[in-house]
Amino acid sequence: MKVRVAVHGRFHAFELARGLHARGVLECLQTTYPRFAARRIVGQDMPLISIPHLEIKRRLASRLGFNTTMDVSIAKGFAQAVARSLGQSNADILTGWSSATLEAIPTAHEKDMKVVIERGSTHIAHQTEVLESTHRGLGLETRITPAEIITRELAEYDAADAIVVPSEIARSTFISRGVPARKVFVNHLGVDTSQFSPPTTPRDNKVPVILFVGMLSARKGTATLLEAFAQLKQRAELLCVGPVDPHFQKVLNRLPSSNVTLLGSVSRADVHDAYRNADIFCLPSVEEGFGMVVLEAMASGLPVVLSDQVGAADSIQPGIDGLVVPVGDVTALSNALSSLVSDENSRRRMGAAAAKKARASQSWDGYIERTLEIYNSILVS
What we know:
Number of strands: 13
Distance between the termini: 14 Å
Helix content: 40-55%
CATH class of the largest domain: Alpha Beta
CATH superfamily of the largest domain: Glycogen Phosphorylase B
Shape: globular
Low-confidence stretches: none
Order of helices and strands: EHEHEHHEHEHHEHEEHEHEHEHEEHHH
Mean pLDDT: 94
CATH architecture of the largest domain: 3-Layer(aba) Sandwich
C-alpha cells in the first residue's frame, strides 16, 4: 500500500503523514506549507511536494480579513495542483482534505486510486446551519460558508470512496444527510504525550483557574462560557487563550468579564504552561468535529467540561475524567464548573484519570493503526 496525503495547510495531516512514513506506506506529503516549514515538523527524509504560493495567499488573506472570500480560490488551486501532480504518482490511496480535493478525484480514479476525504468537522451543511443559527441568535452576520465551498464539499462526499471524520457526532451528521453509513469512518485524533503532560508539582492556585483554549467566537460557545462563569466569578478565575474572532468582538464587549483574563494568541510554550497551571478545562462549542485541545488538556492532567456537540466527548467517561453538558445551557455549564471549583479532590481525581486515558488510548500511534485498518478495508471493498 502507498498513500499520498494532500492538505492545504496543516490540520492533523502532518501527524498522519509522519505516522504513515514511519511505517513505510507514505508515497508523499503534498502541502501548501513552504518546504522549510514543513521539514521542521515532519523531518528531512519525508517525500514532500510544496505549493508555497497558496500558503502565502492564505495567510495574507487571513491577516487582511479576506480569508472567507479566498477560501474557494485556494481550495480549487490546491486541488488542481494535486490533480496535475498525480500523473507521476504510484499511490494506491489519495487522502485529501475536504473542499480542496475535488478536481483531483477524477484523475485519481483514472489511475485506480481510492480517494479518502478527511473532514475534521461535521457535515458542511449541518455545520453551516448550526453556525448561522448561532450567529443570528447573537445578532451577528450570518454568512458563514461560501456557497461554492458547500457545493464543492457535497460533490466530494459523493465522489470519494470514503470519508473519515474524528467523532461519532460528526459521523451522525453525515448519515442524517443521506451519506451511506458504509462510506463514513470514525478515527479519533491523537495527542503527543511527550509534549503535553501533568505538572511535576501539584497545582497551587489561590482560587481554581478554568482554562479555555481556542478562538473566542460564536462557534466555540464563548458567550455561554462567559455567562456561565459569571455565576461563580467570586470563587474562580477564567483564563482564555486564543484570538478573538473580529466578527464576535461586539458580542464580547457586552459579556460579563469580571475575573476573566483574555490572553490572546500566545506561543506553544505559553499554551503548555497554561495547561500546567490551570485546574479545569472547558470547551462549550456549538459545533466541533473533535477539538484537539481537549486531548491536550487531558494529557496535561485536567478534568474537562464539554458541550455535547464537541466530538471529543467520545473520549470522555462523564464523572470519571470529565463532564458533558447540553450545548448552550448556561445553567448546566455553570453547575458543572461549580461542582469542580468546589471540590479539589474531584478535580485531582478526574484530572489524573484524564491523563491516564490520554497516555493509554489517545496516542498518535493508535490513530495511525486505526488509519491503516480503514485503508485496508477500503482497498478490498
